[in-house]
From TrEMBL:
It comes from Candidatus Odyssella acanthamoebae. Pathway: Amino-sugar metabolism; 1,6-anhydro-N-acetylmuramate degradation; Cell wall biogenesis; peptidoglycan recycling. Belongs to the anhydro-N-acetylmuramic acid kinase family. The gene is anmK. InterPro entries: Anhydro_N_Ac-Mur_kinase (IPR005338), ATPase_NBD (IPR043129). This is Anhydro-N-acetylmuramic acid kinase. ATP binds at residues 12-19.
Length: 347
């Protein structure tokens, strides 16, 4: 198959906005990176999205609005490029994750009709049906990005939830390590009226409560082997005990400790730890991860790029998840492809 331009969309569990990015790919290699765009949600819609967290059956009106927001972002990005976009990868907004049930709010068919481009969506259901966790799905993209490296490395993505991908040229392992930014953001909003801990300033002035941290680390999730995955609010019970600057500092330490615990059980010690996601901007968090951890350059759009890549793999019938990344019984090609009514395959 000749490479095509695909557009990926990602709205993560941090609930800050929508990432959109273009890549030229055949689903096996990345040939070129194109334009990208980030559009933040307004405060009112963030509140509406937050009301849907934990909901197995999201409000249809809010789901429709979410799809409309994604459609507006697609149209905006398409207006900024002359690249012939042939396919869209639409992750949707996760509201509930308890495998084998996982819910990503959004209507792929509506999006295809709105923008006039084929859409791949519902990436997780097939994996869950095959015994997998439905997440994480980005590891195969990480592996392709770094296939030229001949040593063990880890890519850590710190979004609302933190996850890692391990690759050593032979083995691909992945899973969610624990909370990422979500709980920190929740405390910042509740106690300080701020959406996130800018540059980790609040964590830096707070005091880590070692007893509370060790208590939290006793949660059975942290001792589970990879692959494993989390709902954004799996650890929301910790919010009752996380108060003020101490709470932010201790939650930041929890994110770091759970990442390092995950790295400790990998087959080989990684020579590189590359960090991406919103957490890379948290200077206190990055300092706690240690000198071996380095920001992944130009990585702000990596998840949106990944879903463009995954969409092309679905188009080609290639697997998007694997037994060592999600726990599925066999490699799975997960995703539903829908076409707008007016679309011509001759375009």
């Amino acid at each position: 198959m000749e490479p095509i331009w695909a557009l990926g969309l990602m709205s993560g569990t941090s609930l800050d906005g929508i990432d959109a990015a273009l890549i030229l790919t055949d689903g096996e290699q990345i040939y070129e990176f194109g334009e990208s765009l980030y559009v933040p949600y307004d405060a009112d819609f963030q509140t509406q999205l937050r009301s849907q967290l934990g909901q197995q059956f999201p409000d249809p009106q809010i789901a429709r609005q979410s799809t409309q927001h994604h459609g507006e972002v697609v149209k905006q990005l398409l207006s900024q490029t002359n690249k012939p976009v042939k396919l869209i990868g639409y992750h949707g907004q996760s509201t509930f994750h308890a495998p084998p049930i996982t819910v990503q709010m959004g209507d792929g068919e509506m999006l295809a009709r709105t923008v006039g481009v084929p859409v791949v969506y519902d990436f997780r259901t097939a994996d869950c049906a095959a015994g997998g966790q439905g997440a994480p799905l980005v590891p195969i993209y990480h592996q392709v990005l770094f296939r030229h490296k001949n040593h063990p490395l880890v890519v850590v993505n710190i979004g609302g939830v933190a996850n890692l991908t391990y690759s050593d040229g032979e083995v691909l392992i992945a899973g969610d390590t624990g909370p990422g930014n979500a709980l920190i953001n929740d405390v910042m909003l509740r106690d300080f009226g701020q959406e996130f801990d800018k540059n980790g300033q609040t964590a830096r002035v707070g005091r880590i409560n070692p007893n509370l941290l060790q208590q939290w680390l006793q949660d059975p999730y942290f001792s589970k082997p990879f692959p494993k995955s989390l709902d954004r609010d799996h650890f929301s019970k910790f919010l009752r005990e996380a108060q003020g600057t101490e709470g932010v500092a201790t939650l930041t330490a929890l994110t770091v400790h759970s990442i390092l615990m995950g790295i400790d059980v990998l087959p080989k010690s990684p020579q590189e730890i590359l960090v991406c996601g919103g957490g890379v901007k948290n200077k206190t968090l990055m300092a706690l991860l240690g000198k071996k951890a380095a920001p992944l350059p130009d990585s702000e759009m990596i998840e949106a790029q990944a879903f463009a890549f995954l969409a092309v793999r679905v188009l080609r019938g290639l697997p998007t998840s694997f037994p060592t990344t999600t726990g599925c019984r066999v490699p799975v090609c997960g995703g539903r492809l829908v076409y707008p009514e007016s679309f011509s395959t001759q375009r």
